[in-house]
Predict the 3D structure of the following.
Amino acid sequence: MNGWATDPTETIAWLCKFRAHIVFSSRTIALWLITFATIDRWFLSNINVRRRHLSTLKNAQRSAIFITIFSFILYAQMFYCYEANLMNTPLKCYGKTKVCRHLTDLSLTFITVLCPLFVMIIFGLLTISNIRQSHRRIQILKTENIDHSVNKSSGLSNDNPQQKLKRKTDRSLLRMLFVQVIILTILTLPLSIQKLYSTISSENISPVEDAIDMFVYNMAILLYCISNGMPFYIYTLCGGTIFRKALSDFIQTMKRKIICKLNCYFFHINK
């Protein structure tokens, strides 16, 4: 709404507070859900059977519920801190005191951006390590099977198409996840750096420095907003045939439903 000439969140207090709470909470939820997806891929690629069994839909749902509740509680401060009709601030709907601004900036920098990015990178590297270990074990097992007997090796070759399809699916999902982590890091890190810098150097700044800081803030916000729209294109371009097939099936299903509804509608009209 910042692009409109009249933004109601800049003048209406309750709308300003509500929008700030939703925006900051949704940012935290979005990044942490991707982080949990990275952890889930690590569980799924782990050699340890017990850890692989932790990759379940139930655990994913629990994680989503937990981070949603945590984010809403974390940014409940917005209902007190944010106020409309402020002057000499980056936005008219902004933190009303320095303590509120510092608290919001530090929460956004560390909990919303840096912590999930750090966890994503760590578990991404661990997932790569798991995949390499799995490949080494597969090569060893193949060598042992070939040396053991020709019959057993030919019997195992019947499963090759399924194994290849599974490996292809895993590679597509991992490639999609890693590209998303890299792009999110590039697009969200500037905002956390700017917020951290503005928190540290908020005292005794000149008008020129204040103008530069506001320009950098607006650019960082723009990059952060771009990151919110990137997942669809990442899934389409880097997700292989899996996401494209799912998208195509969804479009075809919706098309059939629309055609069916239209046919029923025209049938009742003609009747």
Summary: Residues 150-158 have pLDDT under 50 and may be disordered. The beta strands are 82-83, 94-95. Residues 8-238 form a domain with the Rhopdopsin 7-helix transmembrane proteins fold (CATH 1.20.1070.10).
